[in-house]
Write a structure and sequence with these properties.
Blueprint: H1 2-51, H2 60-72, E1 76-81, E2 85-91, E3 94-105, E4 124-127, E5 130-133, H3 140-155, E6 162-170, H4 184-190, H5 193-196, E7 201-211, E8 215-216, E9 220-223, E10 225-234, E11 238-239, H6 249-267, E12 276-284, E13 290-291, E14 294-303, H7 306-327, E15 330-339, E16 342-344, H8 346-358, H9 378-382, E17 387-395, H10 419-434
Parallel strand pairs: 3-6, 3-7, 7-17
Antiparallel strand pairs: 1-2, 2-6, 4-5, 8-17, 9-16, 10-14, 10-15, 11-13, 12-14
Length: 437
């Protein structure tokens, strides 16, 4: 009798394995069908979010809009995580212990949109005390819409999901607003978004210039660490006709820009440690014939190596102080990290390539794209748990991605034909991860 039960159990296990394999063979096609069905909603969501952008930690209406749709899908929804973040949980009906997270950012930028789209933004917001135009000039509207679409597809597939999927809609990806100590990812982590849900791994997508529907990333260092640099100079005010009777902070600022550019270009090997150090703002003076007493400068440092970054910061601070001293001025140098190195877990990156291929991208998946000097605070999640961040091309057919409007520019737009690929990539990544032993 014992042998009979053992034989029967083995037969049932084999049958279950065969059924699972057959289900696996059809999963990609079923996901594609479900994605096609949800696309009218995804387009509607994207256009609404695009037309109604909000700056970091001010995404109040955005969060309410997202939460309402997630609740309509039957998900467990929590709002107010990291000020304005939204977290939703989907528990599959198949047995499984794994927990995976999919993440989208939510915030827009202080940019005046110039796309000419019928749903272009005319919104304004408050940034550094001033009223500014606001636009989704980095594609976060597309990110939210794709993750909502994935949530709807996955909600309809509970019977095929083992384990738990956590959807993270994160505020303030573009950095902590003035006066805030932490940006969106760091704040959500501090408030327990990873530990409360016992998340094991996390995945995210970002639209960038590239053939619409292509997917690309790289293992290890993919996107640069980002630091904000602030320099405050103090000289002595004088008449513009008598510069020798004061201390010219305009001349000091100009020399500092040249010094930083030379220091970066002449002391680091760009083939081994790509580095960009840009002074982006100089503010000083109120009148054409008065040399002011004070000047402020700010910029960004992008690096891929911690040791070389620390060494460059040390030498830059010394150089700024030295230049100021030569002219008789004083300088205060401060630096704050906005995002760490976006480090894609090597083993997870290797596992991901065939999964993304199942998402039916346009062309092949490129898992060995060159690093990029733009930054992402998704990196803070990756410091806590394994994760992979990948890019989705969003340039219209017939347009050269190299010449199209880049992220953060007034003309940046996303070809909506790329959105189904993003939805499928989210869905396939989550399910395949949960199916892992």
């Amino acid at each position: 009798m014992t042998r009979l039960f053992a034989t029967l159990a083995a037969a049932l296990t084999l049958a279950a394995g065969t059924a699972q394999a057959q289900s696996s063979d059809t999963l990609s096609a079923d996901v594609a069908t479900a994605t096609t069905a949800v696309m009218p909603h995804v387009i509607e969501w994207r256009r609404h979010l695009h037309q109604n952008p909000e700056l970091g930690f001010a995404e109040v209406n955005t969060a309410a809009y997202i939460a309402e749709r997630l609740r309509a899908m039957g998900l467990e929804v929590t709002t107010g995580v990291g000020k304005t973040g939204v977290v939703a949980v989907l528990k599959g009906r198949l047995p499984g212990e794994h927990v995976v997270a999919l993440r989208s950012d939510m915030d827009a930028l202080p940019v005046l949109e110039a796309t000419g789209l019928p749903f272009a933004s005319t919104a304004t917001g408050t940034y550094q005390g001033a009223t500014v135009p606001v636009a989704h000039a980095c594609g976060h509207d597309a990110h939210m819409a794709m993750l909502l679409g994935a949530a709807e597809v996955l909600s309809g597939m509970k019977d095929r999901i083992p384990g738990t999927i956590v959807f993270i809609f994160q505020p303030a990806e573009e950095g902590a607003p003035p006066g805030e100590p932490l940006g969106g990812a760091a704040l959500m982590i501090e408030e327990g978004v990873l530990t409360d849900h016992k998340i094991e791994a996390i995945f995210g997508i970002h639209v960038v210039p590239g053939k619409a529907g292509t997917l690309f990333y790289r293992p290890q260092g993919f996107m640069a660490a980002s630091d904000r640099v602030d320099i405050t100079l103090k000289g002595r005010q004088t008449h513009g006709a008598w510069p020798w009777r004061g201390v010219d902070v305009i001349a000091v600022a100009s020399q500092i820009v040249t010094t930083i550019n030379t220091l970066t270009a002449r002391t680091l090997d760009p083939t081994t440690t790509p580095t960009v150090f840009t002074v982006a703002t100089i503010n000083a003076g109120v009148r054409y014939n008065i040399i002011p007493e004070d000047a402020t400068m700010s910029g960004t440092l992008r690096t891929f190596d911690v040791a070389s970054r620390d060494d460059l910061v040390k030498r830059a601070e010394a150089a700024v102080d030295h230049v100021a001293e030569i002219y008789g001025a004083t300088a205060e140098f401060s630096i704050r990290q906005n995002a760490a190195l976006t480090y894609n877990d090597p083993a997870l990156s290797e596992w991901l390539a065939p999964v993304l291929a199942e998402a039916r991208p346009v062309g092949t998946v490129n898992p060995a794209t060159p690093p990029t000097t733009v930054a992402e605070d998704f990196s803070f999640f990756q410091q806590k748990i394994p994760g992979v961040f990948f890019h989705l091309g969003g340039t219209r057919d017939g347009v050269d991605p190299a010449t199209t409007a880049p992220n953060h520019s007034p003309g940046f737009d996303v070809d909506e034909s790329a959105l189904p690929v993003g939805v499928r990539a989210h869905v396939m990544t989550a399910i395949r991860y949960l199916e892992r032993p």
